[in-house]
Structures
1.
Amino acid sequence: MRYNEKYYFVLSLLELIEKMNREVDVVIVEGINDKKVLRELGFKKEILTVGTRKRPNGKFTILTDFDEEGKKIAKRLCKKYGEKHLIKVYRKKFNELLSRYGIKEIEGIRSIVREVLNLF
């Protein structure tokens, strides 16, 4: 990926995170590294990891990885917590953006984010 592609990729991620900060109360991710990436991108609300006993309170989205295992986990979480307060659009938008660059894991964007943000 060329630098200008990385820049627009990170810019798109930052825009998504900004919208999520306004519209989502909780994000559920697979692990601690995914949580760290979202914090580095500026997500300010609550982030739960898979397996936590705490239930999402309010509007939530699921950002598990986009590989087969991550998809299974996302489906399981949808059933577990229901869809009444689930905002699906962010999972879809993250998937579209990451798949453009062949990325299937949330933590897979970390090195690109750091490279671009460290230049500023």
Note: Residues 3-117 form a domain with the Dna Topoisomerase Vi A Subunit; Chain: A, domain 2 fold (CATH 3.40.1360.10).
2.
Amino acid sequence: MSEQLDVEINLDRKKHAKKFLKPAKKGEAKSKKQSTTDPDSGWFHKGEHKEVFAYNAQVACDKHGWALAYTVEAGNIHDSQAFPALFAKLEPFSPEFIIADSGYKTPSIAKFLLDKGITPVFPYTRPRGKKDFLRPKDFIYDEHFDCYLCPENRVLTYRTTTREGYREYKSNPKICKNLSLVSDLY
């Protein structure tokens, strides 16, 4: 799924006359905790102060609660990383909808499901950040000019598409520094 995201990011950058992103550099491998008695298990954060070596079971059920597919992963594997193996076992059932918890709510999983003609249903995520700050819904997108308008009617132009696939739009700080809402941005 990530290779497809890289291709689409570079297509978007090309459309905006930006250079392709170079492949991400692999950082130094982190030392992982490994159990001496069960090396296949993973270091799992069970709560704020409790950590154990464990396994994580991913289970897909039908609307009646019957298990259709499952995978067992090391405890340190995130739900979104375990999804491809679980989906491969679930695909023969030809689901129309997949209802999943927030661990699976990633852009790559959503796009993957939509491309397969499956409707993803994820939980609502509350906006993060300070309460009185401006939110994305406060800005208006102009599809024709590919820009945003802020509440003060100033233009935010496209700057780049990040490695994660997000488009960044920025305003001219010289124009905006004296506006009344500028304190709500930081």
Note: Residues 136-184 form one domain.
3.
Amino acid sequence: MISGDGDMQLFDEWQQPLSYLEEGAPGFTWTHRVFFAAYNAMKNRGGSIDTPSMCPSWLRSIDAYTDVGWHKVFIPIGPWPQTADPTERLTAEMLRDDCLRYIAGLTPLLLSEGYLPESVEMMQREASAELRSLRARIYSRWAFAWAVKK
């Protein structure tokens, strides 16, 4: 059995977790702001959005599985690292495209959480502009878990 999923937590260009920052603070990004808003909205609705980090524990608790393993991979959101090889660059571009679609689809969730329409539109517009221009040097972390059936 194998499972792969991306964390909602975003990471800076040194692969350290981003902290919540107010607009105007050094290190603030709109991309992190909209992901943070979506994370909280999903959590408030009871979603299991921490699944990527919990999956190995869940697999270990199932007697039918053995040899449980787990690995994390950091992928840049956009092809901003200068050292990326062609495959890494393509993966980063695909992740950026996926994030742009994700951000564009958050309107109903954020509105239902009580955000004002103009706030949602601004977060989406600014986050999308950051990702397109490569201003935000952000990583996404993907967790892969596996186990062998006994």
Note: Helices lie at 30-44, 51-60, 86-104, 107-112, 117-133.
4.
Amino acid sequence: MNVRSHILDSAQELIYQNGFEATSISDITAAAKVGKGQLYHYFSSKKQIGLEVTDQLLADWQKELLENILKDSSQPQRNIGKMLDWICHAHEDQSIYYGCPVGNLIVELSTKDKDFQERLKSFIQDWQMALAANLSQLHPDWTKTKAQTEAKALIAQIQGALVLLKLSQNFNTLTELMDNLRQKCLNS
């Protein structure tokens, strides 16, 4: 791994655990074991690091969630089940539950910085569209508007479940809520 990538990986972990605002350049250099000069050789500012961390996170989610799980809407029950499993698996091995990395960025930065807001909003819209396509297949009687509204509600419920996981620090909270969502989505 090159130095630039190592700095970004270290920053991503710190931002996930502490938030963007609370993560300092000194924190990043210490975690990456690089000097400030080396960091500033690759990045002009903390904001640039934050935007690149956000872009990488969203690219990973785009690939893992939207392309690998939700893209082919011909098997909506399987896809929605796999999405809920993916969310659980992403958190099951953590010793401290920090919540959703995307949701945390939305809560912290969407009202403070347009550049972050636009990236995050675009991803959530893509997620909503992919989910709506699956829900439309699952419920052919739903209008397009109904499927989009239900997709938005499902994303909100997932984010709420991750907030409650963060609060409770109990993985059973997440599995219980994901099972509840699975029942509602797939058995209605």
Note: The two ends are 47 Å apart (CA to CA).
